Each structure stands twice: as structure tokens, then as C-alpha cells.
Write the C-alpha cells for this entry.
Amino acid sequence: MKNESEFALDASKHIDHGKIFVISAPSGAGKTTLVGLLRERFPLLAESVSCTTRAPRGKEVNGVDYFFLSSDEFFKKREEGLFAEWAEVHGNFYGTPLDFLKKQLDSGKDIICDIDYQGAINIKKAFPEEAVLILVLPPSMEELESRLRLRATDDPEVIKTRLHNAKNEILHYPHFDFVVVNNDLKVAAAQLSAIISAHTDSSIFHNMETIKKLTE
Ligand code: 5GP
């Protein structure tokens, strides 16, 4: 049986930094929609804005959707060690600014990152305590293919490549802490919310004040 001071010691290990929720998914699994819903549900989550060498699409805004950089600018930042992780995805380079992550974590804020599986694995290496890796999957390859076709933004060759890449991405599932199958958008959003709540609102760290008051 533990005495009171031992319990106090146990509690101190829960006074930690914020969490980094990394959401990865094969293209067409519905990640963008789900991340949008999570932003509404958890307005205090800080969103990491990545740097990329890809050109802006549609209404994308520099500094909001991405920091759009030339290849030279991107490689210079990479050399200077300014990225927490970087990866080449579908022929373009992407990187997560390290400074932003550190600042948010130091101020106790939780962060959400929408990055590919390579980035997810590297974020876990850089922040093993803080990173929570979530893989969003489509219910089947047939469904993924039909969603990619419905999107009508890619030509058939690109869809073929994306389907091939999807299998490779999914095979990295053992690196992830959670898997959410997006069969029904509402159910998937609820599952993602539950994972985030369990690490934030319902964590011991977030409830220390109440615990202290209750045990005074
Ligand atoms: P898109 O160009 O369609 O916005 O994104 C293509 C892929 O790059 C998506 O899987 C997205 O999650 C991933 N991605 C976006 N930002 C980053 C990043 O900073 N690092 C890594 N590793 N992947 C990223």
C-alpha cells in the first residue's frame, strides 16, 4: 500500500508538455474533412502549418494552408535544421517547422499535424512523449478508388499511383498508436475526438487542479 507522499510523486510525472496529434492517411481517406471537423470541436488545438515546395492549389493561402517555398528556400531551411521532420510526398517536399512545435509545447498547448506516414514516424522519434500517431483508413480499396474518382481532381494514372502508394502507407500501421476507419464520417470524427479527449480533457495532467482540491 502506497503512502501519501508516494502518490504525490506519481502525480508529478503527469505535469508535462502538450501533445502533438499527428493525423496521417492515404490520399482519399477523408483526412482533410475529418481534420476540419476536429478543428471545430477542439478550437484550442494549435494547427501546424507545413512548408512545401508544391505550388498553391485553388484558394490556398500562403501562411494559412502552407508556407509555399521554392526548392532552394526549402533545402536551405532543411540544412539549417529548421524542420522537426521533412519528407518527399508525391514528388514534392514537405516539412514541419520545429520552432512552432517547440513554442506551442513549451506553453502547454496541444498541436494537430496533418502529415504523411514518414513524417509521423519521424515526429514520434523527435517527440516520443508528446506524439500521438493516428492513422485514418478507408473501409476498403474499392471505396478508396471510388472516392478518388469522385474527387475528379486527378487523372486515371495519378489515381493508379495513389492507390499503389496507399497500400505501402497502410503497411506502416505498426508505427501508429491508433487506427480510425472512415466508413461513416460522423463515427470516425467521434472516434478521433475520443482519442484527443483522452489525451487532453480527460488526462490526469488537465485535471490536476480538481484532483488537488478534492484531496486537500
Ligand atoms: P497535399 O499536397 O495534398 O496538401 O498533401 C500531400 C501529402 O503531404 C498529405 O499526405 C499530407 O498529409 C502530407 N504533408 C503535408 N504537410 C506535411 C509535412 O509537413 N510533412 C510531411 N511529412 N508530410 C506532409
